[in-house]
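Thread: zinc ion complex, take 2
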Amino acid sequence: MKSTKTQVWVRIYHLLLEYWRPRAIFSKTRGLGTPLSLDDHTMRKNSGLFARALLDIDLLSPLPDHLLVECPDFSFVVDVEYEWLPPFCSHCKMIGHELAQCHVIHDQTRVPGPQHKPSQKTTPDDRE
Ligand SMILES: [Zn+2]
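Output below.
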């Protein structure tokens, strides 16, 4: 049984500073995957540009490029960037190759169809 889950470092841009806390970041990224850890810079709040979290992501689920962070009084959108994603085939639903390299699909499209061409014997030269 192949797993479709993988651990990915995710960058979260435009996160308001008041949410720059492990618990807040974990709760906001829960929609993407299972939060595993934050990198040291994010912990020390001195990264500045983006928060970085290691998430356990199921590649079968959609990977949004932004997240809506809902707060009691308002909501804001953060941009999400995946630092590295393994090749994943949405056809085979497995990690290891991409759809473009999928042998299963290529074999299917190469299935031999009916090879019989209707023979055309009605050429003008065919006179007697
Ligand atoms: Zn495949």
